[in-house]
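Ticket 4471: requesting a sanity check on a complex prediction with S-adenosylmethionine. Repro inputs:
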Amino acid sequence: MTTKSRAEINETEREIWDGNTLERSKIKRLRRHAFYYSYKREDTILNKILDDTFKGKNVLELGSYQWINWIKDRVVPKKVTCINISQSELEKGIKVAKDLPFEIDFQIMDANELEFPDETFDVVYGGAILHHLDIEQTLSHVHRVLKPNGSILFLEPLNMNPLYKIYRKCNPRERTPDEHALVQSDFKIIKKRFTFEHHFFDFFSVIFGYLSLKLYGDKKHDNILNKIGHGIDVFVSKIPFLHVLFARVILYGRKK
Ligand SMILES: C[S@@+](CC[C@H](N)C(=O)[O-])C[C@H]1O[C@@H](n2cnc3c(N)ncnc32)[C@H](O)[C@@H]1O
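Returned C-alpha cells:
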C-alpha cells in the first residue's frame, strides 16, 4: 500500500511520462502479436459505442492521447477536450490535431481534480487512465462534470489473475510505480455512480499468442494459434465468474 500523497504520485507520473522512461518494447511486441484478433474485436465494440454515444456530443478525454485512435476518422463529435498531466503526452495529440471536422482543445490538468463546471460534458472517456488515478475521487468529478444521463467509456488493464500479478511483480519497469490495474473493488466504486456494462479481453490469447510468437516470430499475426486463443477468450468472457482471468476490460455506462 502506497503512503505517497496524491501530489507526490502526480509528480512521479509527470516525470515518467514527460521523460518517456518506461521500458515497454517487450510487452508491445507480445501485444502486437497476441492481441491481433482482440484488437479487431475491440475495434468493432468501440465503433458501436462511439457511434451511439459520441456523435455530435461534447466529449472529455482523460489522460489524453487515444483520441487519435478512437475518434479520428471514426466519429464526429461536437467538441473534444483532451487533458493530461504530462505536457509531452499532450503534445503527441496536438501534433496530429490538424484539419479536423470538430473543435478540439488541449489542457494540462490533473484528472483527479477536474476544473470544469458541473454538467459540462455529454461523455467522459479514456484509454488506460483510471488505474493511474484515485478512482473514487476521479469518478466523483466525472459524475459532477457529466450532464444528466451522460456516458462514460474506459479501456483499462486488470490485475485479478494471479499470473498477471506475478508478471507485473517481475517487470516493474513496464509501468509507473503507483498505478494499480483494476480489481473487483474498483468495479464496485464505478457501479455506485454509473450503470456498468463491460467486455473482457485477453487471457487464452496471451498464452496462445506467446506460443505463436515463439513459433512464427513477430509476423504472421493471423495464424491458427492466435485464432484459437482468441476464440476461447470470446467464449470464456461470457462466463461472469471467469472474468478474473482477463487482462483488459472495456467498461461503459451512464450517469446514475
Ligand atoms: C498508460 S498512459 C495512457 C495514455 C493514452 N490514454 C493511451 O491510451 O495511449 C497513462 C496516461 O495517464 C496520464 N496521467 C497520469 N496521471 C494523470 C493525472 N493525474 N491526470 C491526467 N493524466 C494523467 C499520463 O501522463 C499518461 O499519458
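Notes from triage: The radius of gyration is 18 Å. Leaving this open until the requester confirms.
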